Amino acid sequence: MSLEEILEEENLGIEVLHPGGLEITRELAELCGINEKSKVLDVACGTGETACFLAETFGCEVVGVDASPLMIEKAKNKAKMRGLEGKTTFILADAHKLPFPDNTFDVVISECTLCLLNKEVIEGWKKLFEQAGLVDVVVIDKSHLIPEWMKEMRKEVGIIGELKIFLKILRKEGLKGLKNAWESMKIFESPYTGYVIIVGRKPAR
User: Fold this and answer.
1) What is the dihedral of CA 29, 151, 6, 116, to 10 degrees?
2) Average pLDDT of the chain?
């Protein structure tokens, strides 16, 4: 059972799923030059926390896409509660087949989907961005934030939340599922797991 499935089915009170929280989102937005005139695409938007934060903080227009109907519903409800329906749109879509024509957006971000990488392949991602035609590609290593993020996640989930997760996995997948979940969490403790910001831009016409 994946972390995404658990977060969809259980209300654990977790809104931001990447190390560094919204301060890292702010840093990413500033690196991308987001302002009130920007039209931003948030790929794998989850509950819409990043999209709402960007709209509130920078006054930009944000379109969020996610493959989960439950996440899109949560994102729409969140935007409505925060009075951001005019600044945000959330669409059910597959990141592999985005339903937008070229040059629809000024900025495209994807935080939780691509940010956790094997440290050994970071330079490979930089080259991939450059081969895709982007220039001024910047890679910023934020791996030092992972341990503190893990502590904060456990604190937010709490003992009751951990018990809910334990019972859900046990009911659905048995002891084998619990073992797999435990092993997957060890990934975040590995010295080879890196957390990075990668930013590039299209060349000027």
Assistant:
1) 50
2) 82
